[in-house]
Amino acid sequence: MLESQLPILIVLLVLGTFAKLATVHTDSEPGALTRLGPAVLVPGPLRKPALVCCAVGELVLAAGLLLTTAPLFRWGTVVFFALSTYVLLELRRRRPDAGCGCFGEVSSTPVGARSIARTVVLTGMALMAVWAPVSGMSGMSGLSWWTLAGVVALAVLSPELEEAVDRIRYRAPCEQRPSVESVGLAKLKASATWRSHADELSSAEPYDSWRELCWRFFVFRNHHQDDVVFAVYLTGRHPVVRVAVVGRDDTDSMPEYTAVSA
What we know:
The chain is built from 9 helices and 5 strands, in the order αααααααααβββββ. The chain has helices spanning about 5-25, 45-65, 70-95, 115-130, 135-140, 145-155, 160-170, 180-190, 190-195, and strands at about 210, 215-220, 225-235, 240-245, 260. The relative contact order is 0.11.
């Protein structure tokens, strides 16, 4: 029974780690970190480092629970979730509009009783796991009804599941979705259109870029000092890529784009 909680704790710690790192890496929506705890409780320049430190700490605890039976990692997990409970209570008092940030940007719903109850339950699970006689690796092979009960309890207490369903059901149109310039550039360079024009360009990096609705535009110079304008559609695994070459004397109009699937 005691070791039945280890798989849950390990999985949640790992999920929290990668969700936080993904949020820090993309930071797709301006000001997003100002609405996520614990970043919201620290000064602006320290918000990203705070999330990264929290993520690294979770990963270290998960690895310790998985590979060892050392009390350091087990009591560390208890302290982590107990401290998380305190932080959520403080966050709810000081910034009732902010999300817990437990799983990065997905946890943007304002902190409520369910999120706080979840960390209390996780603290109890971590306390039970302190006396487990095996490591998390061994516990993974002996999943029980206690593990299933813990998963169900945490699912009921997780507003992120509802948030994920809402995002799927009510997905914003592409012109309203955030777009990262580097992602659009990567899609461009993976396209057949790019490969057919890359040798003509004087540089592999654009000197200008902008977005219009569902399109991201990139402007390069070719060896004749003409502008080569690529347009990348922002949705789909294989987005449409269009290209136009604008000569130095073409000041009144632009030629028609040629549509090519990436």
